[in-house]
Amino acid sequence: MKDGLIKFEEKDGAVFFSVRVVPRASKTEITGEIDGVLKVRLSAPPVDGAANSELIKVLARAFGVSRRQIDIVSGQTSKTKRIRITGATADELKNHFR
Length: 98
Hints:
This protein has 2 helices and 6 strands.
């Protein structure tokens, strides 16, 4: 993944960005970027928060932060979600995709 394609925004000590999820995929993986949005395939179904939990786990592993630092601030029931990561800067998060 090329640096700078995902639109990270820093505000109030947190980093915000958007994610587009594809639930019920054959495997869980970050597949890239589309129009500044991170695209993530999730094997979990969008039932009882399973896909959201799996998304947080995948993002924590990808960005090297704990799951407690990640919140879905909007789009809990949508395929497009707004994510907040606390305790990190946009530059630190971008470094994980170089």
